[in-house]
């Protein structure tokens, strides 16, 4: 599929380091709505008629969006959500020839639709706003975010096995790391679907809000996260993500190294100076 047409435009507004003209990108995506409002980007799955089911075309566009966000220095927070009444209710069905053909063909079919890794690899913090159900591939995508805010009526689950499918976009591994092995086994092997409140208790989501208050909860969370130094936030994300696969001594060394690097930044000096002057810091991402 050809890359979407991108039109350059200019964003005028107040950024963390004061008013400035900031080059941004407006997209002509068909399946994704990308809104850049520095220091935030909002990425919306825009196929409400299908429950935002993740197809090859949507996955390709979402990977393209992630590549663009990595190049936006003034985007410090990415919000991922769905349009309509669902976050995303599943994956595209594999045609018979893809499911039973040669291994290279099956691998290629899945690789074209994998997208959770691209979201997880974004350097800035990512918040998934589950405005509705997150099921199967949709939950795999949501689990790739750093934090999740869910509407009270949202349901979460991986029901692939009941249809003879296998979760292949990182959902099993991320589910086990967040909820533990026992709950990962329970949810995947039985197809158990949990409520937003149960998901909160399991650690799968970080906030639950009334259906008509999800946006308010998200705005409050965004303000808290954007108040932090953007470089420090990225380093903290790196320490958490990379440290999870290291031994404790190795992870502690990674933290120490990142802390030393942070001390050399202008933002770190601004943080200290603003504390001394009892004012809000003006971070410049430098």
Describe the structure.
This protein is α/β, with parallel strands linked by helices. It has helices at 56-70, 96-100, 103-113, 116-120, 137-143, 171-179, 181-190, 196-202, 214-226, 230-243, 248-263, 266-277, and strands at residues 6-15, 18-27, 32-37, 40-45, 77-82, 86-88, 126-130, 133-135, 147-151, 155-157, 193-195, 207-209. It is built from twelve helices and twelve strands. It has a six-stranded mixed sheet, with helices on both faces. Strands 6-8-10-11 form a four-stranded mixed sheet. Strands 1-2 form a two-stranded antiparallel sheet. β1 and β2 (18-27) form a beta hairpin. Residues 1-24 have low confidence and may be disordered.
Give the gist of this structure:
With 286 residues, the chain is α/β, with parallel strands linked by helices.
Q: How many E strands?
A: 12
Number of helices: 12
State the name of the first-level CATH class of the largest domain: Alpha Beta
Using only CA atoms, what is the Rg?
20 Å
* N→C terminal distance: 37 Å
Structural class: alpha/beta
Give the name of the CATH architecture of the largest domain. Answer: Alpha-Beta Complex
In what range is the share of β-strand residues? 15-25%
Q: SSE order in H/E notation?
A: EEEEHEEHHHEEHEEHHEHEHHHH
Q: Describe the largest sheet.
A: 6 strands, mixed
Helix content: 40-55%
